[in-house]
Amino acid sequence: MISSITIIYPDGTRQPVSKGSTAGEALALKGLRRSDEVIAALVNGKPMDLAYRLEADATVAPVTFDMPEGKEVYRHSSAHIMAQAVKDLFPTAQLTIGPPIEEGFYYDFAYERPFTPEDLEKIEARIQEIISADRPFRRTEMSRQHAIEFFKERGEDYKCEMIQGFAEDMVSAYDQGGLIDLCRGPHVPSTGCIHAIKLLTSAGAYWRGDERNPMLQRIYGTSFPTKKELDAYLHKLEEIKKRDHRKLGKELELISVNDEVGPGLILWLPKGATVRLQIENFWREQHLKHGYELVYSPHVARLDLWKTSGHTEYYRENMFAPMQVEGMDYQLKPMNCPFHIMIYKSRLRSYRDLPLRYAELGTVYRYERSGVLHGLMRVRGFTQDDAHLFCVPEQLEAEVAKVLNFTFFVLKTFGFTEYQVYVSTRPAKAVGSEEVWAQATAALEAALKSCDVPYSIDEGEGVFYGPKIDIKIKDVLGRSWQCSTVQVDFNNPERFGLEYAGEDGHPHRPIMIHRALMGSIERFFGILIEHYAGAFPTWLAPVQAIVIAITDKQKDYAQAAARRLADAGIRVEADLRSEKMGFKVREAERAKIPYMLVVGDREVETGEVSVRRRGGINAGSRLLDTFLEQLKQEAAGRDLHPSIGNEPVLKGEVPNRSSKAEGE
RNA sequence: GCCGGCGUAGCUCAGUGGUAGAGCAGCUGAUUCGUAAUCAGCAGGUCGGUGGUUCAAUCCCACUCGCCGGCUCCA
User: What positions of strand B are covered by protein, i.e. any atom < 7 Å from a CB?
Assistant: First the structure.
């Protein structure tokens, strides 16, 4: 007879159902129908098809698109539908893998030629037909051997290769009425569940991500339950494009890259250099405050130094070729550490000297393969905000903790408050014993715990000389960027024979910490540009204020006002051209200058300036000196948001126009 | 480095086997204006580079450099 099992819903209620009921039926009893919302079920916490048959007591919860699991299922099914469309149109294309990814999905095909944009259009049209047909996704299980034969028959060599790598005896496949694809699942109940889908790009990708393998044709796409959400996503992509630091860097005259200089080599234009100077000033000021000593080191050194450090052995593929000078080999530096080590070695050290903290904005050069270069984010010459700390073993954990807190403070000052933290362990190519690595990794984890920082482990991603903590920041669009890194190094002190005289009078070996807070100034600047869409906070803005004369009559006053501000250390310009002020305002807005000071006859008479804030906010008129003091305060406080114009409205300062929000 | 796409004026982009156009920017002049574009005139390009096909190449082909999207790698 049919026996009964008990279902437990998320709200804790229990429901007896007959054994063999599907997860979908169980949810339907709870009023959670297989509507457009519920696309799968969590059975005992595991995502399963709605058609999954419940054979024992279980907790059952609905999976919707809003949940991470829901997005995965939805996009995974989308990928399968795309695969069917591709197979329909290009029967000789072979299936490989097609997973969901963060914001969509892709599917890799082995095909004789790349897919063109026209192909994508055709595929998309076919996808619509498959969706309209609304065929169910049906799970079938088969033995490994049968599966291999099954896919072999269909010419799916890659699928066979995959199955051969599986440990399980049984494999599952999904039949969507037109395509049977090897797949773990789960899937949405039917192809009609996918409502808004769009193919984005096609690109080459290596089989199993290994460049020695054949190149496959990857198609990227994304899908959403509604067209509205899809459109919002596409709109977001447009926004990201608008913020692209390469575009803004050019438009705002911040940086330039030039063929004749070479790829991956950055020219900092005056405005970009001004922002950089603010960053560096802040950096130096804070390092001195936090107990660091500033040092400088050369850009090249004898190759032997890099042999000692292990770079020639472990880092060669990232280094420029050595150069010969008077019969000796010299190497352009890919890192700063050997120099700081030599600074340590410049005299005898005592335990009383430690910890020593040497910091340098050190410019390094690394050979990067041409295809990986990307604006400011990935370059061949860049400046690290580098430091090397030398300490006794007992100080290690505390020093790492201090570095972490310092890092969070610095990142916060630039407006980054969300982080992801990773601990990277021993890579395949590494110096030093397993024990030493384990010890160093433990110290990093202990420091993170003492700072109460949650983290995850990145297995095998450490640098060759030691494990590291990487901090990824989230920008305003929610994208993650790797900047900060803290690396423990037991190996270089060994290689260079570093010592200090201990309390006992005998020599001991110090431990070294490598760290960068912003990572590289170039990348960090690129991130800042995109984070702020070029509209920097006042303290960073290349031009903080611009005086706009309404007519030629106010030229002298405008010039004097600008001079007064400049004398007080404000970065100010004066626009005295015989243009209409609307035009000047427009240009100042496009240059993303935080404050526009309009001066006409009224202001000349009263000694005031009419303040327009970036973004179209009229902050009212005030005495030039009042503005000067307010701006100085805002800049000195490194405020992230403008304050002038926020104060309670005073008589005579009624903002006569307040519209758009700050920052476009 | 690999796969694909692209490279025309400072910028954004049209265009064609018969040696090139627009808008903006620039320059000159006029205009003197109250919060996102005043008007007119002028000037500006060996069509990324090299070689080839052709009577003729910016256009077709090959190579090369660079950029863009991915892969791989990374601060």
Answer: 1-5, 11-12, 30-38, 65-75
Name the fold adopted by A545-636.
Rossmann fold (3.40.50)
Has A193 been annotated as catalytic?
A: no
Q: What is the Cα–Cα distance from A414 to A540, expressed in whole angstroms?
A: 9
By C-alpha to C1' distance, B32 is nearest to A551
**A424 nearest nucleotide via C1' and CA:** B74
Q: Does pTM top 0.95 for this prediction? A: no
Helix, strand, coil shares, percent, chain A, to 5: 35, 30, 35
Q: What confidence tens digit (pLDDT) does each residue in A121-174 have? A: 889 999 999 999 999 999 999 999 999 999 999 999 999 999 988 888 889 999
Amino acid A226 reads: T
Listed residue (A238, A282, A281) closest to A410, CA to CA? A282
Q: Specify the nucleotide whose C1' lies closest to residue A600 (CA).
A: B34
Q: Which residues contact A136 (CB under 8 A, 6 or more apart)?
A: A51, A176, A177, A189, A190, A191
The gap between A578 CA and B35 C1' (Å) is: 16
Please tell me the class of the A4-64 domain: alpha beta
- Measured distance CA(A113)–CA(A624) in Å, rounded: 66
CATH topology of domain A69-239: Threonyl-tRNA Synthetase; Chain A, domain 2 (3.30.980)
CA distance A410 to A417: 10
DSSP per position, A432-451: S-HHHHHHHHHHHHHHHHHT
Closest CA to A425 of A456, A394, A392: A456
Task: Specify the nucleotide whose C1' lies closest to residue A461 (CA).
Answer: B74
Give the ipTM.
0.92
* A324 annotated active-site: no
Question: In angstroms, rounded to a whole number, what is the distance separating the alpha carbons of residues A565 and A32?
Answer: 66
Of the residues A183, A337, A391, A483, only one is catalytic, namely: A337
Which residues of chain A are modeled with pLDDT < 50? Answer: 650-664
Asked if A379 and A368 count as a contact pair (C-beta separation under 8 A), the reply is: yes
Active site residue A514: yes
A628 contacts A570 by C-beta, under 8 angstroms: yes
The architecture (CATH level 2) of A255-297+335-532 comes to 2-Layer Sandwich (3.30)
pLDDT digits (tens, 9 = 90+) for A621-654: 999 999 999 999 999 999 999 999 887 654 444 4
B49 C1' to A260 CA distance, Å: 12
Report H helices in A358-490. Answer: 396-413, 434-450
Task: Name the nt closest to A472 by C-alpha to C1'.
Answer: B75
Cα separation, A618 vs A620, in Å, equals: 6
Closest CA relative to residue A524, chosen from A487, A485, A486, A482: A482
- Domains of chain A, by residue range, sit at 4-64, 69-239, 255-297+335-532, 545-636
Q: Which candidate in A176, A384, A395, A544 is catalytic?
A: A384
Strand, helix or coil for residue A456: strand
Beta strands in A138-195 (DSSP E): 138-143, 170-175, 180-182
Reported as half-sphere exposure (CB side, CA atoms, 13 A), residue A388 has a value of 22
